[in-house]
Amino acid sequence: MIEIIIADDHHVVRAGLRALLEAESDLKVVGQASDGLEAVQLVERLQCDVLVVDLMMPGLNGIDVAWRVSLCSPRTRVIILSMYALESYVVEALRAGVDAYVLKDATSEELVRAVRQVLAGRHYLSPPLSARALEAYVQRASESVLDMYDTLTSREREILHLAAEGYTNAQIAARLVISARTVEVHRANVMRKLGLANQTDLVHYALRRGIVPL
User: Fold this and answer.
1) Burial of 28 (0-12, 13-18, 19+ CB in 10 A)
2) Which domains does the chain possess?
């Protein structure tokens, strides 16, 4: 039996995904998450075969979830579900180790096909993204320019995401079960690494980067 976790912040979407996936006799949904941080924790605990995660999630977006999952559960294949048919998002997803990028207007058959493709060790991208995105990914991979976002630690990415959502240091500390002082230190490191001067800069960066939706 193929074990799958679904992560989406809308209950109705999760219920629909579960129904269409479990219509296949060999697919079983073993867990559901409503935000990115919960998704990472669930995958780390259950070590599922496949994670199907929305691109734009509270707490941690789908791309950062994929990056974290690649570290805590390398065997788990990650499928991004997205309403955004933007090449830039697809390229970022591939860089983070995502195995498939499926548009939300895809058919149920296409999502099932993506699950089977990634389990077979292949990538899957919803058409017409495939050729364009892969070409862009190969071109960007050949460039040696350092992306400062790649220098952020897992904790720094969590704090950046939550701060961009408007959480205060105290609220972030409570959410991540760390001290407010630790949050301050990590947040200062984020600002320094990314060359940001204030909260407005941080929010604008998160919007440009696609960390939070426009």
Assistant:
1) middle
2) 2-141 (3.40.50.2300), 148-209 (1.10.10.10)
Cα separation, 80 vs 52, in Å, equals 6
Per-residue tokens: 59: 């707490």
HEC states along the chain?
CEEEEEECCCHHHHHHHHHHHCCCCCEEEEEEECCHHHHHHHHHHHCCCEEEEECCCCCCCHHHHHHHHHHHCCCCEEEEEECCCCHHHHHHHHHCCCCEEEECCCCHHHHHHHHHHHHCCCCEECCCHHHHHHHHHHHHHCCCCCCHHHHCCHHHHHHHHHHHCCCCHHHHHHHHCCCHHHHHHHHHHHHHHHCCCCHHHHHHHHHHHCCCCC
Closest CA relative to residue 14, chosen from 28, 32, 30: 32
Q: What is the phi/psi pair of residue 74, to 5°?
A: -55, -25
Count how many residues are written for the chain: 214
Q: Give tens-digit pLDDT for 22-73.
A: 999 999 999 999 999 999 999 999 999 999 999 999 999 999 999 999 999 9
Please state whether beta strands 124-125 and 100-103 pair in parallel, antiparallel, or not at all (unpaired): parallel
Q: Are 70 and 44 in contact (CB under 8 A)?
A: no
How far apart, in whole angstroms, are the C-alpha atoms of residue 122 and residue 132?
A: 17
pTM of the model: 0.83
